[in-house]
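Example 3.2
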Amino acid sequence: MKALTHQTLKNSSFRISATLLTALLLTGFHCTSATPSRAAALNRTITANSSLTANRNSSEAEDESGSYSERTRTLFNSIMSSSAKNDTVISDSSKSDSTKTDSSKTDSNRNLFRLSALEPAVFENVAAEEAAKNGPIEVTLSEAIMMALENNRELKVRRFTPRIRKTAEESAVSKFDINQSVNLSLGRSSRSATTAGGSGSASDSVSLDSSISRLYESGTRIEGSFSETFSSPDGAAADDWRTGLNLSLLSPLRRGKGQDVNLAAVRQARLDTRISIHELRGYTESIVSQTESAYWDCLLSKRQIKIYTESLSLAEQQLKETEEKIRVGQIANTELAAVQAELALRREGLINARSGYENAMLKLRKLLNPPVANPWTVELTLPEIPSRPETDAEDVESHVGTALQMRPEINQALLSIQKNDIELIVTRNGLLPKLDFFINLGRSGYADSFGDSFQDMDGDGYDVQTGLKWEMPRNNRAARATNLRATLNRELAAESLENLRQTIQVDVRSAWIETNRAKSQISATAATRRSQEEKYRAETEKYKVGLSTSYLVGQAQRDLLSSQIAEVQAMVNYYKSLVALYRADGSLLLRRGINAPGSEPVQQ
């Protein structure tokens, strides 16, 4: 079992971070310091208040974390400068009615969700190196978050949803594709004689029909067709050739007219893709939140083990002193029972603390999912809990305002309302009668040879047919019911949005209250711990001169232990409450420097 050297860990951390950053960038999850609109203002506020992760280690770890962040920032800038031209964002359907798809842009859009070819090997080489050395892996909070985003199995599954939803866009646009058809047929007809002594007749025929048509966004359909028919009756002096050329146009004047109706399915498919992106963003926030909470739980359990170990040492020292006093006759044997009871309690607490640490580490390993043969046995080394928090929550109204724009649930609800608005356009159009204008143009040529049939088309003869076609169901009950259903769904979505906004405000305000409570508890528990230390010191001094008992000393030890546990618990609770607050207002990913799709608020 060889432990990794400091330099090896440092280099390994950088290789992990650099490779991860590249993969996350290609999958739509990358680090950045620039976000538009309100996200940019929020990012400036976050920068002014500084990040939690910069203050989470000891002085040496802080220096290393700072250099790590600088390297990450430099690497990201170089990647962005070379890939900015290929970065494509899914456009809002209201910004463009065009259905033409550029192949390069389509590929770039797909890259937003496509896992990089490097993905399976992101940690492969480093993990193999670490496994070969069988040493512990030092993991900072920022590295834990990146590992979770890259390796979490549930997140990998959910990344497929936007890609699958995006295929519906192609299906919706496909109805505007050019449609071509060709039909070739061979035939022979035979007729028996109808009179006595007569002879039957037979004829061979060949027919070729081809057509090309397209539906346009306005609802107009244009079709052109070409036909060539050849027949050769038995006994005839010459063959019969017929060549035909036709052009038809069908344009709706009422129902089905306009881009708003004909592009409805395309726009709804795009909205479905955007909804799935916000769903993915919400789950990503959940993964980051769970990872941070599990990380802090591990640090808390680690500190509790240390506190219980120190308390156990004090109890053992107290037992030795008591036994010595009993041996020399300074105190009675009855004093020994209280000391032994306290010692047993300390051992019990230490056992529970170690078990809690193993359970907390188990949850963290599940979230990180290290890509090794047996991730459940990977030893993770975590830094110490910072002595004091450096980040404070802003005022509650600022968090509420951020939540009403950034929460994925809000953006999903707004996009659903946009879908309902499009559906209303379609159903209202369905109430109109079907009135279509049509025109058919055709020319035909007849001859006894193929070439002559073409020349015959140069004549003055032609076919023209034009008119209007009207259709309307009596009472039109199906269309009325569909429109009423769409109207009610739109009203339901609007009411649901207002209810969601109210619920989110309650969540944010409750999280803000809890954050302030947890912060106040830090100073309160620290004061309690200092008082308990003084109380224990005084009780110990009195015991040495025979003015106290083993029971009172043990009670003072127990109170000191409780105050120490409460103090570190308050510190961790504050950090976890900040995570809960940032998740409640939808800013967690931005505050952690993670730029994922869906960062732009949906405009109402």
